[in-house]
Amino acid sequence: MTEPFFTETLLVAGVPAVVLVPLVVEAAKRVGLPTRYAPLATLVAAGLVAGAAEALPFMPVLEPVVRWAVATLLLGLGATGAYETTRFLRREFAAPSGQG
Q: Whose CB among 28, 46, 52, 88 lies 3.0–4.6 Å from 33's, allowing a Cys bridge?
């Protein structure tokens, strides 16, 4: 049996690590992480995601928990982004008050 390439293991619950790391950092900023710490948070998030990607083949019992965490992150930030986009569009394209 051959060992997979490192790049093949950089998936967590089927999601590429390159997608998850910015999402983790964005979530941290939304809960109050100062922007100046974002580069450090990126390194920490990358370490956590890479660790999870490497550990899952050896600890399959963690897979449901990791899938739940990834789904929560993706769905939560996706919903927040959709809400903010809708709010922005309403504000930008709303008829100016006082004109009609």
A: 28
